[in-house]
Amino acid sequence: MKPISELKLKVLELLKEDARRSPALLATLLGVIEDEVTTAIAELEEDNVIVKYATVVNSGKLDDEKVTALIEVQITPERGRGFEAIAERVYLFPQVKSVYLMSGAYDLLVEVEGRNLKEVASFVSDKLSTLDSVLSTKTHFILKKYKQDGIIFEDPEEDRRLMISP
User: What domains can you pick out in the chain, each with its CATH number?
Assistant: First the structure.
């Protein structure tokens, strides 16, 4: 893996804050010419450093009944491939949004999305827990998201205290 230039790191940081920023605006913020930013972005995309531009959605504001669960999975690593083979089998399921190798009491943390509780439960019991390397699972349903990717979803509460004047 080759080192990433200071300019590319700064571009990445600004794009993580707001991916809608144009190369012209990024160039102005960084004090460089637009062509340098455009080239840096193209190289970051080509090197698979930038893999996707995404929108963070506050699903609490939608009439959307989707259910998200975080599943702790204990597994037996495969000889020669360790955790990679089972992680690959898990992340290929369309219901799986994210898979992380973890330290601690469990090995994988799997984020799953379904239309309802029953669909997620069915995925865990019929697909995930039946994989040969899976020893156990523990499912946690997300009830409410307060913050994601640095974005706070809660509307600020109005200060209802009475004003006191001297």
Answer: 6-46 (1.10.10), 61-144 (3.30.70.920)
Q: Six-digit token pair at 75? A: 């597994």
CA-based end-to-end distance of the chain: 64
Looking at residue 60, the DSSP 8-state letter turns out to be: G
Residue 90 CB burial class (10 angstroms; 0-12, 13-18, ≥19): buried
Name the 3-class secondary structure at 24.
helix
d(CA 19, CA 107): 32
What is the rounded CA–CA span in Å between residue 54 and residue 20?
Answer: 10
Residues 49-64: tens digit of each pLDDT: 999 888 777 777 777 7
The single residue listed with the structure tokens 């893996």 is: 1
Q: Token digits for 73?
A: 């999975």
- Rounded to whole angstroms, the Cα distance separating 108 from 97 reads 13
pTM summary value? 0.75
